[in-house]
Amino acid sequence: MPAWACYRSLAGRSATATGGGSDTGAQIVRRFCEQGSRVAFLDIDRAASEALFARLV
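That's the SDR family NAD(P)-dependent oxidoreductase sequence above. Prediction below.
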């Protein structure tokens, strides 16, 4: 498991992730959300993106 950066506070901050629907991109999206960020993400795999979105909301 990779070591993830954890900042003092990302609450209320915005982030954008490309390739965020699956694999490493999805992990990045999840971590930012866990830390309180508002995240916009996109991916060419629409089904994976929609599934991730459904899990996050």
